[in-house]
Amino acid sequence: MPISETDILSLNDVEASYTKGVKILHAISLKITQKEIACLIGPNGAGKSTVLKAIMGLTNVESGSINLNGEDVTDMKPHEIMHRGISYVPQGRTIFPEMTVWENLRMGGFILKDKHLVENRIQEVFDMFPILYKYRNQKAYALSGGEQQMIEMGRVLILDPKFMLIDEPSIGLAPKVRKLVFEKIISLNREKSIGILMVEQNAVQGLEASDLGYVLDMGRVRFRGSGVELLKDIRIHRLYLGGGGKDQPKTKL
Amino acid sequence: MKSFFIFAQLLINGVLLGGVYAVMASGLSLIFGVVRVLQISHSVLIILGCYFSYSVNRTLSLDPILSLLITMPVMFFIGIAVYRLVVAPLKDAPPVAALLAFFGLILALENTIGLIWTTNYNAIHSVYQGKSFLLSGFVFSLPKTIAFGMACLVIFTLLIFLRNTETGRAIRAVSQDRDTAQILGVDVDRIFVIVFGISATLAAVGGSLMGMIYSFYPSLHWSWLGVVFSVVILGGLGQVGGAIIAALIIGVAEILAAYYIGAAWGPFVAFAILIITLVHRPQGLLGTKGQRI
Ligand SMILES: Nc1ncnc2c1ncn2[C@@H]1O[C@H](COP(=O)(O)OP(=O)(O)OP(=O)(O)O)[C@@H](O)[C@H]1O
Ligand SMILES: [Mg+2]
Question: Which secondary-structure segment (H or E) carries A205?
Fold first, then answer.
């Protein structure tokens, strides 16, 4: 095995459930490095969010394993996983609405003892997202959807993660803002070497921004490939982008 | 002119009382805002705190305010015990189970208080008892003014704690989005423990200040229950800031009603305000949708 200079996050045949015995994920395997952006796409209820939650230790992993750079993190608690460099931005708005932008970012460093370090990292986030600096003393609810998404990304950056799991970063955003969010995600990956695993409903934009794509359905990986490959793949267009083929049973595709 | 003067004097008395109500109710509001349970035994903790201060005051002949230095930490741990023994075990039970358990706690504590301290009227003594001073022609009862000052100090400390400390921010974060706070590494159970401790401490302060102003007996907490619920609902469930304003309104309304309608009408007015709020403005005075602090 070659020794890589970046960390690797991998899932190996993971089966996961919320209620013991009721498996939502079946034999999920995937792998990303700190240099990559990977995108999970698939219909509603496919299990995309569950993959991210499984990595964060928010589900029961019934079999298979999750590894971070060779270390087994399968049964760790969320905060232990965060300490090892994986951060998670859940689906939906999860800002603290009645707290200021600065307080929201500060909560991102809650588990760090060194508050001086937290302040330095908040400054870095402000450098990355100048709009957050401008509104640092505003209550978060008063910001726009795109700005709130930036709070959420900024908040997990305080832990200086190696990997960032982002669930539907562009949901509910205007097309222009959406583009901006994807640009930020790409620059986090390129400039800060943060490996990104994101879930996207906007499959085209999601795959365009990604190095790798995984198509999930019914808790299984149906297709995998480079972002470009999957984009080209007509089967994906039929299945998930509304490009026809409605009368064909999914399993045949 | 004279009637205006009387009105202004009543306003002063109402605000002084309202300040104490704010401390009494803030703990209940805090628990609802963070833990999302209706702690209906809050008022029995208020009177328990009052009796603790009474005992400290009697046995050590300590000033009531200084007695708080002993009462507050004791009640902090009692609050934690309430969480550990009553609330936590019923976490997954239907909400009515917690209500029943709190009700049981009310009866148990009220009877225990009666056994220890008798059901007679009692009062907390101080050197300034019955004294007052004049300011711009208005009478300020010394115990009430000192109680109000202490109430302001405690509320101010609470607000500063919630705004400006790591733990305070974590408490607000849990109140605003429990799951996200958890994902960020906040130990929610520990936050609940702290909140119950703080709430009982606030109850103790409120009860002790009431005991400085009025005489009391074990079952008096039932009428305080009406007051604290009126305050918390008028202020908006779980909104500590709203509760403070609501407490002043209820305090003033009570004093005005007692003077202009009749002494017995004070508590009724608080209750009427409660009903009117529930019908017309269930989200409370400050009127946001969420229950946040
Ligand atoms: N907390 C939960 N408890 C039990 N079942 C759940 C829970 N969350 C999701 N599920 C179930 O798991 C399955 C996969 O859900 P998941 O949220 O992972 O889908 P998704 O691909 O993210 O869908 P969407 O595009 O709608 O977000 C669904 O059948 C869903 O009902
Ligand atoms: Mg999802």
Answer: helix A203-208
Going from the C-alpha of A161 to that of each of A39, A86, B76, the distances in angstroms are: 18, 6, 38
- Judge if ipTM > 0.85: yes
Q: Could you tell me the domains of chain B?
A: 2-280 (1.10.3470)
- Report which of A49, A44, A43, A57 is spatially closest to residue A91, judged by C-alpha positions: A49
Return mean pLDDT, chain B: 93
Please indicate if any CB of chain A lies within 8 Å of the CB of B191. Answer: no
In angstroms, what separates the C-alpha of B285 from chain A's closest C-alpha? 17
Mark yes or no for CB contact B176/A96 under 8 Å: yes
Task: Determine, for residues A99 and B176 on separate chains, whether the beta-carbon distance falls below 8 Å.
Answer: yes
d(CA B198, CA B175): 15
Q: DSSP 3-state assignment of A40?
A: strand
Chain segment B40-51, per-residue pLDDT in tens: 999 999 999 999
CA A171 to ligand 1 centroid distance, Å: 16
List pLDDT tens digits, range A11-65.
Answer: 999 999 999 889 999 999 999 999 999 999 998 999 999 999 999 999 999 999 9
